[in-house]
UniProtKB/TrEMBL annotation, chains A, B, C:
It comes from Ornithinibacillus bavariensis. The lineage of its organism: Bacteria, Bacillati, Bacillota, Bacilli, Bacillales. It is found in: Endomembrane system. The keyword Ribosomal protein does not apply. Ca(+)/H(+) antiporter that extrudes calcium in exchange for external protons. It is a multi-pass membrane protein. GO terms for molecular function: calcium:proton antiporter activity. PANTHER family: VACUOLAR CALCIUM ION TRANSPORTER (PTHR31503:SF22). This is Ca(2+)/H(+) antiporter. GO terms for biological process: intracellular calcium ion homeostasis.
Length: 353, 353, 353
């Protein structure tokens, strides 16, 4: 698995450079860019993980929380710079429903084919559920509903306020999880703690930092070119901006997470699989998105925290579904299938819109 | 109880025939049709149950799942043929909120008057809760919200896609319940299993099939005439199409289920009462309704999966309420009363609309 | 604490009278009125509590349930008389989200700074959750959605019907809690029962009734004048009617509850803190508000049960959040912070609107 990623990077990045320079056809380059980014995201994930182990749990948690969605952040910044506010919101929506429905759904389903019942920490599930309701059902719904009675300036003011609150609460959640309440709710499953104790970093500190830096720069470069192909791709396949953002960009940006969550589920490490799926969602909703709202103030087109109604409703209903299915700390193949069915319904919806 | 049904059928069906032939006044015929259908539904229920026992649990579960709402399916097909798409969606909405609020509410309330606390399987409740959120809050909400940005053709395309997914998931749920995870979650309440072991069919296979066939044909005949009286009834009582569909047709179509759920609650068999109320809801939402959407392609007026907002909101909020009240596996009279109060509020709403 | 309240009353009420007579500037009087009402609410609370202990648990519960929000009821009646229907609905919305997010949030946060984990009865939490969904998500949402297809008269008819059902269910809930199921769900925490057994009233019956009567009259008098200052205050600070109602009036009307809930949380009596926060919400939603709808029939401007969308969505999402955070019977500082963050988001929203 890891080797495939490494080879893809070694081949994909130079080909991306050459193709961009020689102006190969958009569809071909779109595919090359996507594959290269998926491979680079895998590298960034491994580097972050190694660094997290070296640095200890607290700074490690912070590193994971900040770099975990680096690829999405970078793609989004270039989209923002190009004024494609709609695509940024769409791809973040896609990231949320992709993680909650597709990543979690595949994990539950594949894991459930091997094991009759799989379990994970109820406390973790409830903690995440509270944050999901806060971020998606309050912080995203309020500006949507309130902004219909506001002018553009007030909407942006509200968006900025909410973004700051989201970021503050995101770091407060890390403080809660890694400092004040570390291990408080874990009494009954020490397995995980033991597992963590054994962990050895794949790479040393120096190598990890170098890989992280180089891969991030490469992603940035390719992302900028990827964004430039959206127009041609949309016309070639008859896909709307919304569909490209929500389904395509989201799958590309999260491919590495998809792979590792499923592998963890197959190893019956459901706590890790859940952490990847839901933790990543919270990262996008409470860190990446608000950072982008604030960054947009530096660009010519500002981005308010206002989704389209289909986007918002997709996220809200996904949150309700995943909460219902995870709140009992128990999964099986059928619960995975429900999530996948929900993802398919939304995919069809965004295709037709 | 059973005798009353049998006598009602023996009297009601011929009177329906004669009345229809002699063109008796609409209001009288409306009442006769309704009573006859209620009685026939009781017969169909008994025949299906006998057949289910004879055929064993797997095919039996399938039979119950398919014929359980045969009456509603038949009435709806005739309404669809008459182009009354609005009434079909209304009566299915009525069936959903009627089962979730009225049937469950009466069961909890009546059972609760006799027993201080009544309990049932938490696992079953959670399984149902996941399906209710999937079917009502995702599969019904998505086309509602997305279709406002779609033309008629795309809306129908989305409706067809969702209908197929609903039906597939419905059968997957049966597979999960009766094959792959049969008994997996039942360790702590073997009572039910024992009770099932004792069950004897009321009728033999042959008699059950005959009754099923004849009663179904009679329901079909009467339903067609019942649909024809809606116009006159609406004018006579000042009832809107919506009110007739949601309250009247739904009560008539589900009367047999109402009766048996309450009897089960009174016998403290809450698992069965819940299964009737919520299982029947899921059947309507995941089987009857999508089948009707697909069947409507054969008629001149197609039926998209798009409810009116009051219908949709009634279903969504009913789902949230029933999940909250059943998720702890414990009921009492007051929880029943909450459900009945919610039903009354919606009834008043649909009356005034 | 109690002494400060008593002194505030002794100083505040005469100053209010003099200021009103001499027509001091609105902003000054607004502040004096608010402080006096907060102090009087404290007195009313203590009188009600003393009386409740003297009269025994059943009538005591009824007294608490009726007089607990007497101040809000009185302010609202004067607003209603002045035709300020919008402010009444806004202040009740503010009371609901203020209790659910600010009072509960501060309690959880402050209590959580002292204790790592605080717990309370799961059964109570679930009972409250069911009522919150019924009152806010069904009884408030249905008229909102249905009324868009109704004329004014039908909307009022629906509002009256729902109000009666809310009041009936409110008293049924008291019957359930204090009569039919008293102690049924409390087997595992007898602490509270013991604590109740020890309780001694602060004042005798006679003194309590006198204080209650005099303080209520004083609140009524001051409230009438307070309502008269809203116009000037709004203009002076650039606050909308909505913001004054939802944030300012709600904080003033509930200040006494805020104080006692936080004190209880600090003493680790989370059951009482929760009862104040959520019980008070239910009182407003199921008793104060429907009473006001019915009373409005006596005034020139009737008040339908129809909120603005931002108000309704704020209440609905607050309910979902508090249910998720309390359903496990366990709180900590971070859950308190989530609630406070949600309140801040809504506060910013109503400020900008």
């Amino acid at each position: 698995m890891d080797k495939i990623f490494t080879i893809s990077v070694i081949v994909g990045v130079p080909v991306s450079l050459i193709g961009a320079f020689l102006e190969w056809p958009s569809i071909l380059m779109f595919i090359i860019y996507c594959l290269s980014i998926i491979a680079l995201a895998g590298l960034i994930g491994r580097a972050t993980e190694s660094l997290a182990i070296v640095m200890g749990p607290r700074i490690g948690g912070l590193l994971n929380a900040t770099f975990g969605n680096a690829v999405e952040l970078i793609i989004s910044i270039f989209s923002l710079k190009a004024g494609l506010v709609g695509i940024v919101l769409a791809s973040l929506t896609g990231s949320v429903i992709g993680n909650l429905l597709l990543v979690a759904g595949l994990s539950f389903f594949v894991g459930g084919l091997k094991y009759k019942r799989q379990s994970f920490s109820i406390h973790e599930a409830r903690h995440n559920a509270g944050l999901l309701i806060f971020a998606v059902i309050i912080a995203f719904v309020v500006p949507e509903v309130f902004s219909s009675a506001m002018n553009e300036q007030k909407t942006m003011g509200l968006s900025i306020g909410i973004s700051i609150i989201l970021i503050v609460l995101y770091f407060a959640a890390l403080l809660f999880k890694f400092v004040t309440h570390r291990g408080v709710y874990q009494s009954n499953d020490k397995r995980e703690q033991d597992a963590q104790a054994e962990e050895e970093p794949e790479w040393g500190r120096f190598k990890a930092i170098i890989v992280l830096a180089v891969a991030t720069i490469a992603v940035a470069f390719i992302s900028e070119h990827l964004v430039g192909t959206f127009d041609d791709i949309g016309q070639a396949f008859g896909w709307s901006e919304l569909f490209i953002g929500i389904i395509i960009v989201a799958i590309v940006g999260n491919a590495a997470e998809h792979a590792s969550a499923i592998i963890m589920a197959f190893k019956n490490k459901m706590d890790v699989a859940i952490e990847i799926a839901i933790g990543s969602t919270l990262q996008v909703a409470m860190f990446v998105l608000p950072i982008l709202v604030l960054l947009s103030l530096l660009f010519s087109t500002t981005m308010p925290l206002v989704f389209t109604w289909p986007e918002l409703i997709s996220m809200v209903t996904s949150v309700l579904l995943i909460i219902m299915l995870t709140i009992d700390g128990d999964t099986n193949w059928f619960e995975g299938l429900i999530l996948l069915a929900a993802y398919t319904i939304m995919g069809i919806g965004f295709y037709f819109i």
